[in-house]
Amino acid sequence: MFRIAKNLVRTFEQSVQDTLALSQDSGSLDAFFQSIPPNLLSAQLESPVDAVSEGVKHTNVNETLSGLRIVWVDEMQFQLQSFFDYIVGFNDDPVPVVNNQHGFSYPDYRRITSIFNEHCGRTLKVNIWSAKGGTFRDEYVNVISKDSNDLDDVSLNHDERRPSSGEAHQFQALGFKVQWTPLIASTFTYHILNVNIPDGPAQLAGLIPDEDYIIGCQDGLLATGGETLLQDIVRSRANYDLVLYVYNKVSDCVRPITVHIGPDGRLGCNVGYGFLHRIPTVKQRSQQGQQQQQEDDSVPFSAESETAFVPSAFTAPPVPTKKKSKNKKGSQPLAMDDYFNEGRDKSSAAAKLAESDVTAPPPQKQPSSN
Amino acid sequence: NMEVDRLMLDKWRQWNVDMTTWRSIGSGPIMEF
């Protein structure tokens, strides 16, 4: 029996090793990137980098394969996700690139701007690769042309520090910013496996084992990745605060947390890094769940709503004293009530939450001064 | 505690990561569209 289990584990480990070896093999594409249609990668795969110069051969395509990473998204542009999404094509054609003297590919922003300009008044299909499970999808962006007054405004308010694509935008702002970044950079994430120091920084910050992934750090200190990088940064911040960006796979959201690192330079949790600990595909939330979420969003945060759903007939029921004592025990009946009330009206619990010292919700967006 | 965490996570659902001030391994400028 023991031998069977041992063999099973060995087989599993072997398959993982094979997968890892395959992903590190210079000739084959990382499994995470294989959802991207080959024609969108052809421009980069066929770049003359391999044939190049200076004695250095860039043999691992998985480290150089890049896309236009979304680094900021406006409130209106919800179909794109900052950090996770990369634009890898337009209208099923690859992102236009040019090669520099060393053979490296860079995006041709002049050509990209032209593509948007050509689609003024129309819809442009944008091909997106997401780091959540390495999935591929298409998004459709409405390109709205500027009127002449807007064009004048742009020329007057031109910011010299802003990098220019060399071609004027004839379309209204689409609401996102991009940077040419290797796809592999989005896999530099640290999976929280368990919290191992009671009342340690990880536990106090509310890190959730298995569900949470540390995807970033203040100032981009985790940008270069590496198995020991998080540990090194945490150690170097002993006795200081550290801002970490945490993705939760169940809620599919990112939150910033501030941890205070003690003199021992430990975060207080075990983390997993590498192929098996990349961010998984988002599980589709049920329609009911989405509807509930919309209701929650529309309900204002007030104590009044606590009684809004309670019919007057039930406000003062003839409760026997025995029932009270049952509730005091806090056992099964209370748990069942919680179960049935779950997701019905969270405002009362949320009000309690607001009083506690748990991380505050995101601030309201201030109207832009522009 | 876990239930409190769920409520807190719900409130972060629409929040976006702003990486424009981060050090990154990306190359070239940040372009706005």
TrEMBL record, chain A:
GO cellular component terms listed in the entry, alphabetical order: Golgi membrane
Official protein name in the record: Grh1p
Stretch list, region Disordered: 282-370
Highest classification ranks of the organism: Eukaryota, Fungi, Dikarya, Ascomycota, Saccharomycotina
Compartments it resides in: Golgi apparatus membrane
Bias-annotated ranges (Pro residues): 360-370
Gene name, Swiss-Prot/TrEMBL: GRH1
Main location class: Golgi
GO biological process: Golgi organization
